[in-house]
Design goal:
With about 280 residues, the protein is of the alpha/beta class. About 40% of the residues lie in helices and about 20% in strands. The protein has 2 domains: about 170 residues, 3-Layer(aba) Sandwich (Rossmann fold), CATH 3.40.50; about 90 residues, 2-Layer Sandwich (Pantoate--beta-alanine Ligase, Chain: A,domain 2). The chain contains 9 helices and 9 strands. Strands 1-4-3-2-5-6 form a 6-stranded parallel beta sheet, sandwiched between helices. Strands 7-8-9 form a 3-stranded antiparallel beta sheet, with helices on one face. α6 packs across α7. It binds pantoate. The site of pantoate (PAF) has 10 residues, from β2 and α6.
Amino acid sequence: MLLLKTIAETWNACERMRTAGKTLGLVPTMGALHQGHLSLVRAAQASCDAVAVSIFVNPTQFGPKEDFAGYPRSLEQDCRTLEAAGVDLVFTPSAAEMYPNGASTFVEVAGLSDRLDGASRPGHFRGVATVVAKLLHIFAPERAFFGQKDAAQIAVLGKMVRDLQFPVRLEVCPTVREPDGLALSSRNSYLSDEQRRQALVLYRALLAVQQQLHGGEHDPGKLIAAAMRILDEEPAVRVDYFSIVDPETLEDVLDVRPGAALVAVAALVGATRLIDNLPL
Ligand code: PAF
């Protein structure tokens, strides 16, 4: 496995793969890898000749009061895990490598970036879109792999790829959950046992929407009200948003129909902000 830190050597390594006729799959991550990330690696391996993983805790997607400094970092363990998984290339740049002194160019996906997480995390999606655009330039992969758990991120990146005409296919892989339903997230490591138990209410609320929809309820107000009653069972969980939206535009849907909507939640469990969603 190649372990590279500079853009120049990564660009060259990808160019050599292309010259050898190999297709490349990219899995962008911020490290602290879990089974969700490894499911992306496996999906990439199933459809590409070579797989690259980037590990970069991207400072521009964190707000000034967010957890950039404390974000879980486990670079050595991550590299061992990726080597064992058969990954071909790992890119672990420094912040100075990705944002050289004076860098002042950003990618802003207007409109979409202000919805769901973007509404409560101003500038978050500008940071995500900027770093992913840089990674797509560096790797020029045929396919890039993202988890369904970050549904708003997928919508923003899909629009960016279409608008800027990146020749890449975005692949979305299902959310990986613990047996009790908790969506895997690097931030779960912040939770105490009690908070982890409280956090399960998020998935229960999402499932309630799915069940009521299958039972014939299409009114988003009624579906959300039913979910909020479940969320009220855990007063320590403070809901940021609970929305039923169009998965591409992230706009609220007025009539919920199976196959055309996404139910998404963000909440604070203690100081930890968790997100989850279910395509309906
Ligand atoms: O989903 C993530 O881990 C990050 O937002 C990403 C896509 C790696 C960009 O920093």
